[in-house]
Write a structure and sequence with these properties.
heterodimer; A: alpha/beta; 8 helices; B: Rossmann fold; seven-stranded mixed sheet; 3 helices; globular
Amino acid sequence: MKFFTLKWGDKYGPEYVNRLYGSLLQCYKKPFSLTCYTDQADSIREEVELQPISHLRPYNTDKVFTYEKLILMEKHESGIWLDLDILIHQDITDVPNERPFTMIWNHWNNYYERSLKWYGKGTSCHVNSSFVQWNNPEELIRFTRDNWDKIEWTYKSLDKYMFYQHHRCGRLEYWPEDLVSNYNRESLKLKKKISIFNTSHIKANNLQNEIGYELHEADDDVINLWKSYEL
Amino acid sequence: MMSLICGKATNYDSVLFLACNDITDTLEGLNSLGIEARAIDYDPKFEEKDFYTCKDFIFDEVDLTADLVIHMNCEKTYMFEKKGDVILIGDDKHHNGDCKPVLSCEQLVYQYGIEEVYEQGHWSERATFLNGISHYWVYGRI
């Protein structure tokens, strides 16, 4: 399996990459590689293949947050991309090799209250791109290329683009519900096999009543497990 | 604003509303006057609703044929491609679902390449104690 991750700026340090690799060693029992596209290669363990993130930025834009993931699929026919701020804590060896484009469905949120109710406002998003598999998604790549000007104008993030255009048209697959949980939305516990720690949407959408902890801010049991992956 | 729009719409045989949310009463009223009035809005709640086409008029294939096209929320979408008479409406609310806030009538004229402006205007409302929202509209021909 080919895994990929992206790291730029100073929000996350190299330990995020190193521990992500360690978590795969622990929880994925088949041969694999991890490639990190980054602008800062210092202190990343040598088993991780490094590539310049500039290779994923053909467009000079600060919109469509993490659109680099779309370009990643143009360069690599298949694989799984992982956000740095996820914690894999159970065995995921049985993740199939050849799923079509598969995202996370936000099972932890009420679909009507959180998304459908506000659909026309343009604020909805019920999908998450922290753990995504793809396998030669020609239609998705072509649609993105053909409509890039509209996409860049319209969407602040990749997830919103995927939700409003591709989920709406039935083009997306989703992981089984027992794979991914949301630490901040599900009792601050590690559930299922992978936990996500998304907080970027809180600031982006000005959700003043929502509390979110980054992975490095989680409770001691989580931190200890995460640090153990660096050994 | 709706009364102003309906006043203009009665001068046309067919009218198309875009990104308009629920304006069932207006659509029924115009149709009862013999005006072919319909709407395109991608919110799934309009899937089974009379006079509505539930599609994204920017990304999907849609029929924009009408004597007058009225875009009710220009701040929320890319520019549609259609020649003819239009009413464009947008605001500077800076809602987090907006693509690009509309800050003036001139912005609408520029973005859509309006060749002739028949009328234009704006109105404001108070949103909070200190801040307000301005709405801009342009009636013209692309």
